[in-house]
Amino acid sequence: MMTYEEFQETFHIRLNRQQAQAVRAVDGATLLLAVPGSGKTTVLVARLGYLIHGAGIAPENILTLTYTVAATRDMAARFASFFGEELSARMEFRTINGICAKVIQYYGQLIGKRSFALVTEEKAILSLLSAIYQRVEGGYATEGDLKGIRLLITYIKNMMLDEAGIRELEKASEYRILDIYRAYCAELRAQGWMDYDDQMIYAYTILRKSPETFQYFRRRYTHICVDEAQDTSRIQHAIIRLLGGGSPEVSPGSNPQSPGRQENLFLVGDEDQSIYGFRAAYPQALLAFEKEHPGAKVLLMEENFRSNAKIVEAADAFIRKNLLRHEKHMRAAREPGDDIREIGLKSRSAQYRYLAKVAKDCRVQTAVLYRDNESALPLVDLLEREGIPYRIRNAELTFFTHRVVQDVRDIIRFAESPGDTELFLRIYYKISTYLSKQSALHICDISRERGTEVLDAALRWGNLPEKTQYSCKTVRTQLRGLLTLQAEAALERILQDLGYREYLRRAGMSESKFFILKAIARNEPSPGKLVERLDALRGIIEEKPFDADCQFLLSTIHASKGLEYHRVYLMDVADGIFPESVPEAWPAAQGAGAGDRGDGLPAGRLGAWDGRAVGSRGKPESGNRAGRLAEERGADEKALEAYEEERRLFYVGITRAKDELHIFGINQKSTFRQELFAQAKYQKFHAAIGEGLIVRHRKFGEGVVVEAGEKQVVILFGNRQRKMDLRTLYENDLLVL
User: Fold this and answer.
1) Which of 69, 121, 614, 649 is the most buried (most CB within 10 A)?
2) pLDDT mean over 226-236
């Protein structure tokens, strides 16, 4: 075995103090919190090598878990580049689903039975859900509906929700998700199938219920390493805990340590970068790590090698305003570069024209990042019209089949084909006809029998009350005039004059899709042409060839996680868009300094899995931290949690930038922009203060700076020196330079 010094020399590994400490953390439970750009993959790979060469652990006894199949391949390749292909081939790099498959296979051999068949074809699952949706909801599901339901089912299984939890989830859902979920699970069992989420449920159950299986995997993997731990779900953390030496006799949340077995578990992650809440990512497990793993170590890697110092300092101050996080301070390895730039524009739509100009002459790696896939559609439309090259990462196409978009298409198509009874039955209750279902069906029968337009049939033979007749006549007039309008004006008529806005309010749905539709419609002469353009855009995005040489990239922040770019533009940074909402009473609480959470409590490590918090001195605090803070601030707990994830998403976005960061300042209030640029302005203030500078304090008058430090300044006023906090001076505008 090698000493660490010999290991460094042999494999030419050069690490800073915090990185080296992580590599040498061989035994016990360890959580490594790695800020963006801190070299976590290099450290994880180096640690794997050190386990073998420095600690004498057999490669076959080390299990490395990563988030995706692509990440396992990358990790194996990185390991091989340091330590050789032969050793890499003896290692196990798996996803959590991969190790779950191995658990299920072993158990099946143990009892002599075959497991359910794993459904690997997503189309089969969506087909199954489509039939269930029709039975439960009484209608046809759009592609967006099916993907939304699929995501909810994944969330339910990964968060290990019981019936009460599912009912709570259903309140915020557009679907009868409990009934759909029950039917889906029953159908899978009847077919002898399991999906990828079931695979984890079954593996977890086996590890808890089969002592032979549990003991086999405990002996097989003496050391477990987990990458991207902030992205793992609740059930994934429970499986990891068992594989790492936790007792199978307990459920998540109780003391997990199994007698007679040291937990050699090494998690790498950062709760500040947990942005997959919709997929059931469970960063609370990182916050509760020390409680869940008695005697565990929490190590930090706080040096960012990626971004210039101005970006790093602003990002650090920004994320430290989040509430539920470990205390850490990202610092820059690089010197300050260009200032973070706010691009002031009059409207959200002006971003597209600005970015088209950037793309025309783009010679450096440039990424345009946004919160949602649909945000890029008007920009894609403009770039395509002007023939400007671009690349797009992981474009999601559910916008084109979203209920609202489908309704708009149906209304336009019915205006074009007023005798189409199938279209009419899809839209009559969404526009201002005020017809009952029975009346609508009767009118459609008449329309088919007489071969006439549906609304003509309603008015001539429908025997409708006077007010309903008037409503149908008005709708007929509006629909006939719809086709004469320019596309954007037609959309406004659908919303306002045809009553679709009122339907959205009744259904509790947002009209946000109309902004994207109108941005595309602005360039179309008629509503019919808009429908054609939507079809064309979908095809363009689906078939877009990959151009590796193109420097101009479009991506959601989610798809860009783990990547870096020379220049970054962040779109749509405005309250109501990004973040989607700001909880009431929240902004005022965000005025605290960067070292304070703004709640009057110490900025210590927090534990939240069981609803308790651990303060900076390790003393338990009673009550649920997020719930208590929500109550103190007069805000909804779920809204606060959602807002914190939005802040983390923004943080991930800005930390993708290496050299240049540009934020669009559209003409709307933005809490995020305000906070980010407050730090940037403070940086300028801080940089301007130096020894010998003559300043004027609003209370003490004129003075001379005699000592300028990182956080404090000493100023001579007359014959008296005063030591003052720089941030206090800045935030209260006490010092005139």
Assistant:
1) 649
2) 96
pTM comes to 0.88
Helix (H) or strand (E) holding 658: strand 657-665
Handedness of CA 690, 694, 698, 700 (dihedral sign): positive
492 contacts: CB under 8 Å, gap ≥ 6: 518
Tokens of 484: 């004469």
CA-based nearest residue to 329, from 290, 300, 306: 300
- Residue 190 reports pLDDT greater than 90: yes
Residue 114, Ramachandran bin (φ over 0: left; ψ between -120 and 50: alpha; else beta) = beta
Q: What is the CA 288 to chain-centroid distance, rounded?
A: 21
Residue 511 near residue 556 (C-beta atoms within 8 A): no
Chain Cα centroid distance, residue 700: 48
Query: Torsion angle of alpha carbons 447, 453, 457, 459, nearest 10°?
Result: 160
Q: Write the DSSP string, 499-566.
A: -HHHHHHHHT---THHHHHHHHHTT-SSHHHHHHHHHHHHHHHHTPPP-TT--EEEEEHHHHTT--EE
Which has the closest alpha carbon to 349: 327, 375, 329?
A: 375
Nearest to 286 by CA among 241, 223, 222: 241
Q: Tokens standing for 43?
A: 């450290």
594 and 329 Cβ atoms separated by less than 8 Å: no
d(CA 569, CA 677): 15
CA distance readout (Å), 569 to 267, 351, 579, 716 = 32, 10, 16, 43
CA–CA separation, 102 and 217 (whole Å): 10
- Alpha carbon distances (Å) from 162 to 166, 278, 292, 390: 6, 18, 22, 45
pLDDT digits (tens, 9 = 90+) for 46-89: 999 999 999 999 999 999 999 899 999 999 999 999 999 999 99
Q: State residue 461 phi and psi, 5-degree precision.
A: -130, 5
pLDDT band at 610 (very low <50, low <70, confident <90, very high): very low
For residue 579, cis peptide bond before it (omega within 30 degrees of 0): yes
d(CA 484, CA 493): 12
Residue with tokens 């359910």: 116
